[in-house]
Structures are given as C-alpha cells and as structure tokens.
Amino acid sequence: MERFGVSRTVLREALRTLTSKGLIGSRPKVGTRVRPKSAWNLLDADVLDWYSRVAPPLQFAIKLQEMREMIEPYAAALAAANHEDATLAMLTEAHRAMVEAQNVDEWVRADLRFHLGVLAACSNELLIPLGTLIERTLEGQLRLNAKRAEVYNASLAEHTAVFDAIVARDETAARRAMADLLGVTRGRIEG
C-alpha cells in the first residue's frame, strides 16, 4: 500500500482479481502465495497477454500456433458451411483490406480481422470469444510473421485460397487451405 500509494480497499480488490485469475492463493495463517503456472487461468485475456510478455518468445509462439492449428482449419470448414451474409461481408472486407495493404501495419490489422472473421463466420458462439481471447497475442504473432517474410504480404495467396473456399462453401477445401496457411506460418516461426 505504501509502495504504490493505494488504499486497503484497492489492494483487496487487486488481490481478489489476481485470485480470480488463478495467479495467487490466499489462506489464513499461510498468507498470500503465487500459485504454480499450471493453476493460472491462461484462457483469461489479461493473463494470456501478461504471460505472452514474459514467456520465452519462441516457445510461446509455438504454443499459440499449436492451438491455432487445432482450431482454425475446422473453423474455416465451419465458416464455409455456415457463413451468413453479414459474416461473409466482414470476411470479404478483411480480405479486400489485405489485398490493398500498403505496409506491415495495414496488413497485420487486415490479417487479424480476417482470422477473427473466419471465427465469426462459423456461426458457433463458443468460437467467437476465442478470437477475442487471443486477439492481442495473435496480433503480435501476425506482426512477427509479416516481418519475417520476404515481403509483408507473402501469404496473400494462401489467405485468398481460404477466402475463396469459404465463399464457395467448400468445407474440405477451406479446411485444407487453412491448414496450408498455418503450415506457412509455422515455417516462419520455426525458421
């Protein structure tokens, strides 16, 4: 309280927040302790963002990539099967912005919107929050990948293949195209 110049109420609220996120535990006669990483709620957007800043960068990037590889190909297939006019319009706008991007920043913003658009187009309300959860860390990964490529939009053809398959409602092609795109991403991470 003295160090940060805060009241007891603010300190209690901060401890309550950290407890709810699984970062600390507090017990009478034991005190407040940092919990092991296995107890942290890494599916909390704040915790994931904080962890991404201190985790070994390559290790974290690979873990995020593994999660994306498990989810996004299937999400692309669902998007092909289930997209509605509104979500297809969102995806179309993101793809158009990728095509027209003039620099890394424009590309990364459009790329992020594209991947979030695929999740939205799934019409699965349980997948949409996943995009919101990983948005900050995914943006960092997309930026790093764009900078590692020879040109920032080197994966435009792979994104276009995903987009075209979704528009055509070809689930198999959408799943395969997203897997191919994520394979390119993995190559840049590991390269």
Task: Describe the structure in brief.
The protein has helices spanning 8-20, 45-54, 57-82, 85-100, 104-121, 128-148, 156-167, 171-190, and strands at residues 24-27, 31-34. It has 191 residues and is mainly α.
Structural commentary:
It comes from Caballeronia humi. Residues 1-37 form the HTH gntR-type domain. By secondary structure, the chain is mainly alpha-helical. It folds into two domains: 8-39, no CATH class; 45-190, Up-down Bundle (Four Helix Bundle (Hemerythrin (Met), subunit A)). Helices cover 71% and strands 4% of the residues. It has eight helices and two strands. The chain has helices at residues 8-20, 45-54, 57-82, 85-100, 104-121, 128-148, 156-167, 171-190, and strands at residues 24-27, 31-34. Strands 1-2 form a two-stranded antiparallel ribbon. Helix 4 runs antiparallel to helix 7 and helix 5 (104-121) packs antiparallel against helix 6 (128-148). The radius of gyration is 20 Å and the shape is elongated. The model has no long low-confidence stretch (mean pLDDT 90).
